[in-house]
Amino acid sequence: MEDIKPLSFPGISPKRPLVIAGPCSAETEEQVLSTARDLAKNGIQIFRAGIWKPRTRPGGFEGVGAEGLPWLQRVKEETGMLIATEVATRQHVEEALGAGVDILWIGARTSANPFAMQEIADTLQGVDIPVLVKNPVNPDLELWIGAMQRLYNAGIHRLGVIHRGFSAYGKHLYRNMPQWHIPIELRRRIPELTIICDPSHIGGKRELIAPLSQQAMDLGFDGLIIESHCDPDCAWSDKGQQVTPEVLNYILKTLVIRD
Ligand code: PEP
Ligand code: MN
Known about the structure:
Elements: E1 18-22, H1 29-41, E2 46-48, H2 69-79, E3 82-86, H3 90-98, E4 103-106, H4 108-111, H5 114-124, E5 131-134, H6 141-153, E6 159-163, H7 181-189, E7 194-197, H8 199-203, H9 209-218, E8 223-227, H10 245-254
Helix pairs in contact: 1-2, 5-6
This protein binds phosphoenolpyruvate and manganese (II) ion.
Phosphoenolpyruvate binds at residues 24, 50, 54, 107-108, 134, 164, 201.
């Protein structure tokens, strides 16, 4: 993957941290737009929202599906933010591309599955779009790199990764163990690769977002992807780990960036 360069986006400062923020899930048009407007007011330039949600067990909220894509388009038109969403199947990729999504991300349950990764890579053949690959749920660096390689071999060279921690059995401080040595080893092997930390999914609790974000910055990560919702306590997924755009702004302001 010798062609991998740090990700950059026109109009977005190359200074650390690159910030992506938005709700875990797109729920309603109003929730998406109200969150996006407040994030834009606070200077956020890349908006995330899950349209298709991979849930551990059936019966939970599995995302609004393609119905939510026009809401993301409205975010882009109204605020000028870039829009990002998660894709896991050929159909998701086709629908997201059709809706003008700017950045795709691959979820942790998908990057652990070579068949799914190959299907996504095949669908993206010949498309020029940045893709962020979350670490697989299990702490397997080779599987993480392999997921990236499938995309790279399909011609996706604007690649970055998201460190969202690794599953462990039982109750712990973290929802997903950071195991920082794994992304650090990834940086050693592919120094140019953009590495973004997801303190929301590592911590699983809003009070851990600030310390995890600071830790990621101190370890030299390039960016942060943080879940932000206009009314976190009423979120339809991951409510314990989302913060309002105002709280997000406060967290980002208090970060100390040491280069
Ligand atoms: C998400 O970003 O909302 C998500 C589902 O994340 P992960 O794949 O890290 O669980
Ligand atoms: Mn989430």
